[in-house]
Amino acid sequence: MTGTHAYPYPTQAVILAGGQGSRLRPYTDDRPKPMVEIPGTGTPIIGHQLAWLAAEGVTDAVVSCGHLAEVLQDWLVSAELPLRVTTVVEKEPLGRGGGLKFAAASLPHPDRPWYATNGDIWTRFSLREMAAFHHERDAAATLALARPRIPWGAVETDEFGHVLDFIESPPSPYLINAGVYVFSAAFTDLLPERGDHERTTFPRLARERRLAGYPLPHGAYWRAIDTAKDLTEAAKELAGA
Asked: Could you tell me if residue 84 is left (phi over 0), alpha (psi between -120 and 50 degrees) or otherwise beta?
């Protein structure tokens, strides 16, 4: 598929779905974190992710499993999926960077770019626009950047210490890694065999100006599902959408 940039958008993706989700217990007592359902949807987080990837032109996804892998694999076998899905299981924890490299070895087109996402991210935005951004900057890797809401109310004061206002759950002044990526084909070789790419590969690419950051478009939905409260909030937001 080509667009206005005559750029072949990625058609393959990796989902890192091996986390234990200890902060989501009891939901994760009998299932891996990506298999937790968003209340009211009847679909696990990974089901929403696969639908999103397919809508963005992805035809092949590799799901990297770990904790309670068989629960996820059984669901993938029984579900009607909108794209081809392969699963790989880490025999021992490889870390996020090692997990990406291990999963990428099963992508159908190793010579083409690919998307990746953490298995606990619930988001909607144009991956094609992010891929075009990545291509225009000739980056080895591009990460989506989110500005999450601070879970506490903020207090605004003046220079004399008078309280001026209370702001409920304001957006963070800092951008964070949103857990969604576009990688060039060559990026796979830069990943560690084990360990965290965010502490090894990413800092090196940043120093070389080969790492790009794509701010999520204004109004794009993004939430990391880390706790039971996140599930509740996501359900509320969906109900109000």
From this structure: beta
